[in-house]
Amino acid sequence: MASSSSSSSSKPRKSYDVFLSFRGPDVRNYFLGHLYTALDWVGISTYKDDEELRKGERISTELMKVIWESRIAVVVFSKNYASSTWCLEELVEIMECKEQRDLKVFPVFYKVDPREVRTPRESYLEAMAKHERKFGKDLERVGRWKNALFEAGSLSGWHFTDGSEADFIQHIVEEISTQLGRVPLDVAKYPVGIDFRVQQLRTILNLQSKDDVFVVGLWGQGGVGKTTLAKAIYNAVFREFQGSSFSERVRENSKSPSGMVALQEKLLSEVLLGKTFTVHSVARGSRLIEDRLHNKKVLIILDDVDAAWQLDALARNCQWFGNGSRIIITTRDKHILVSHGVNRDHMYEVEALGNSAALELFRKHAFQGNQEIEISTNLVDRVLHYASGLPLALEVLGSSLRGRGENEWKSTLQTLAKSPNKKINDVLKVSYDGLEHYAKEIFLDIACFFKGRDTKYIKKVLDSCDFDTIIGINNLIERCLIKDERGTLQMHDLIQSMGMDIVKEECRDDPGKRSRLWLYDDVLDVLQGDVGTDSIKAIVLKLQEPEVKYISPSAFTNMRKLRLLILHNVENSFSGPIHLPNELRWFEWPRCASIPEFRDGSKKLVGLDLSNTYITGVLKQFKCFGKLKFVKLKMCPSLVCMPDLSCTPTLEELDLSRCKNLERAHESLAYHGKLRKLDLGWCPKLQRFPDIPNKNKSLREVYLTQTSIEELPTSIGNLVSLERMRLDYCEKPTILPSSIYRLQNLLNLSLHGCSKLIKFPKVEEDSSDPHTKMGFPMLLELDLGGCHLPEVEFLENFSCFPHLKSLILSWNNFTNVPTFEKLYYLEHLYIAHCKQLQEIPKVPEKLRGLDATGCKSLSRIPSNLFDVEDVELCSCPELVHNGLSVTDWFKLEEKFYGKTHRCVVLPGGEMPKWLLPNKEGYISFVVSKDLYKKFLGVALCFVFRAEREGFFSFTLNVSVNGKQDEYPHVVFESFNLDHVYLGYWKTKDLWIGDYFGPNGPSHFHFGFRVDGDLSSKPIVKKCGFRLICKPLENDSEVLLQDGQLLDPALLYEVGYEDSQMSLEEESSSETGDLQDSQTSTEEDGSSELVYKGFDIADFSIEKHRYSSINPRYRNVRPGGEMPKEFVLVGDSTISFMASQDLYDKLLGLVLCVVFGVEDGRKEVSFDIVPHVNGQRRNVLAGTPGSFDSDHTWIQYLIPNVLWGALEGAVDFAQFEESYLRFSLAVRVSGGTVKKLGYLLSCRRLEDDLKVVLEDKQLMDPASLCEEFDLEDFDWASSKYLRKFHIFPRGRD
């Protein structure tokens, strides 16, 4: 992260320290002259305009510029000041600059009373009266002068009536010198990635609140730019406070005995400029800060705090400071903020830079001033990947690589792969050094072994080592060393590298003397050479493919402290037993050749994984392992019977899944008091689940997926603590025992695909114990999909499912279902492909989603289904025959504005006519904040079809002022039939936050694109949009004036009565096919409205399309030679013809452009303009960078991204011809295209298709590259394109 030294962004440098405003004849030769001389004598740059050069009654543009570029304005109010219109205009400009910028204004009342100026009185009253008579027709102008006099006269300044002018001037000079001492901080060399964050912080600071004292915390990992951001926000706001102080490096500066005292003295002297303080102890310093600052509005920034006592000494509580004060703390440890009582809403996590900002910052450090050296994009990408957005790394590496050639770059990257950069590492290691010993152990284990692994798994492993894992992981998260992301523990690559380097530093030359081993060569050297020592605590080696290696039977003998051993895909060529130390806590060795042996004595093993081994019965050999909790024996083909669990009384989890010969579950599980999870899934020979004669309070999860169990025992109800049970795809059960209703704690029950299940039981009273509670009071999810049930009468007893949230009944044979109205908590209902279902009864109020896709007999739905957010009725033709349409979900007259997100999918080919047809797939508008407040939501509709049965999905694209975001949307099925999708989103859910600054309107973008994979052919035929808004009433002319760029036809006013038309009548144009509405010439493309003074070029859909393409799909390298594989094109247009069959074979187009630049370095930009039979399609625009020599740009493009309607498939049925012409025009600005070539990658062509190609001469055969089939597309395309440094991996 970087910023300029003057503010959060690069503001213009101030030209003068002081601007003097005065009435010449009154003060020029005496007071003013002496004041100017005194200021100049002490080195204060002062502007004093020459009144003789003043022309006319209005100040010049040059003078206005001087005012706005000055730091302080001193206004000398003398007797005749107000008589000068020039002075008054100057004063108005000064006060406007004070309001809008950071200009400090000080009045000098020279032989006039301040009340004369404010009121006005005496000479000022006479002067204003003359002005009113003279400018009678321009009273507004006179009013501005009066307001300026009042505001300036009310400011605190200096008043001189009589006495020594010399002393008075000296006092003014001292005060100005003090004020100029409050200067902006030097922030960073390059201002990248700062402004938006400063705006976010300004919102958190809430400077409009004058009474509250806020403490705001910035936290993040080392080197991420916390200090830079703190300096930038300081520069942006410090002049709004009476005093300010920036205490840098608190952690470092407080280490020495007098360090904290020095920090206290510095804080006081900075806030109270011009005063010096001597503090004798920390306690006295704290009291002094409270006494001297409790009535002052101050800005205090405490940078790099790492201990609570530091905050206690410098800013213990808010009462130490006056109203309106703001205290900002930066730290690596979030817990510091929590323990200090900082409100969570006032905490701001400083994260790494995004890709574009990281690239910009790196370029500035690596290439600025060294334009003659060209480095390949691939090398730059490798450095960016290494830095992973960390500003410190980008700066250090960029500076170190600056001016170096490609060979030096490669050498540097090779060095970094072995050992991290010391300067970066030292900064990152500070966070590690502050950890407790146990937390350091946890961190090193995660860094060396477990980055990216499941959080629950990691906690199990580390808990087995007797670490305080929960608090330890929380400490690491709070110190920004790790992150918990979607259930996995992640860390920055450089922090991981730092952790690994700490372990390597234990002994650089001998891996056997390190605490942890994870590198292939290190592990094998130690295990094969028998050179392990008691320094080794953990070994983890996970190979991609199985490898046979010799491991000595005594390889682990000397590793007495080994607590963790994980070997995956390592097959030992030695078949004898391996001897392991008793200290071992966690042992994973799938494919292990034999059962390991331990020494006599107590064992500490907690976790055991011997999956995919030929073990027949292992647990009895671990009888003396009193701490064993987790056992995994997956895919053990020799395991026939579950072992007796009585020999492992502490066992909590047992996984025997995919043991293809397992036939029996041991009866001992019924009596086990600790077992919580049992997985017997995918054991096809397992036919029986044991009886549970007594209540079992331990077992919580049972997985029996795809077993041969014929029935569950009636005693299953004794698993009283069971929470999850899965019997998916068990094809033998025909009915379940009614005792299943005794599972009072069951949360999830799944019998998906139990095709022989003819009935789900009804609840029955337990005759043996009438007081036993029956039902599923805790059940949240029930899945009976694919069971072919003829009826679901059991659902009529609603009291059995009081909290059910998700119910899956798809692929069943019932003709009707009971009303779901009393399933009050039901949120999701799936009844897709129930082909005999005729009616859906009333649904509960909380239902959010219903999927009835493929219910071909469905003819009636309840009226309250229109209140459900997501409804999928794909391939339900009877509903459409009965008159149902998507408009029924969007009746805008009926308080529609109260709805949140809504969407519905129905068969059909027409959009509602109230939507505004759109051929581009997006809307873009510039509006003021007042108009935006009127917006309620956005409606989107499109008609689509998939040529092949499959799934269809799309992505929403939204942006505000160029800040883009994407929302992957719903996936639904399509059956080679036209369907209509209609969706609505509240504007506050699409564009989150307040994007309106003081400078006027904002630019909004909303669109969508198809996400079709290579095997499906989704076609978009029509689309339309509408902005739903509150009534504009009489404000419409004001709101829709020159202040914004918006097509008024896009607005639909809910409840607007005047000349309101019905939805079916209102339409600005007929709804035509999307493809038909696209023009055949470029001149007739989408029209661009021009908004005066607002540049919207940066928000073009063409640039957005290109920015969405994976950057790995392109490569730019120096040189003007085109690789020989490409087919050269004579002009700037690529063209070929293709039939439906041939187009379906295409996987991608590889574009190669050789371009040159003349007359110095220039930014090269491009437009890629595709056509199908003359119809323009998805134009792409962007820039590969700035260049001053010939370069070769290679770009991989997916066909549908170019030629498909809204990036869907090409609709050949739209055209009369069997063969369509596909073309691609490439335009380059800033450079000259010297060569243009291309290749077409495709799946292998059948012989008959090759014959057609040859006969019809559809395309140049040399352009086709049949390198791969669809199944191994990723692998083959990478192999084929690697030489061009293009690595397709799907679209990001």
Automatic annotation (TrEMBL):
Entry keyword annotation includes Nucleotidyltransferase = no
TIR domain segment(s):
14-180
Q: Which UniProt keywords apply?
A: Leucine-rich repeat, Plant defense, Repeat
Q: Which SUPFAM superfamilies match?
A: L domain-like (SSF52058), P-loop containing nucleoside triphosphate hydrolases (SSF52540), Toll/Interleukin receptor TIR domain (SSF52200)
Per the record, the domain of life is Eukaryota
Provide the residue span(s) of the region labelled Disordered: 1062-1085
**Plastid recorded as keyword:** no
Q: Where is the composition biased (Polar residues)?
A: 1071-1080
Q: What is this protein called?
A: TMV resistance protein N-like
The coding gene here is LOC115733614
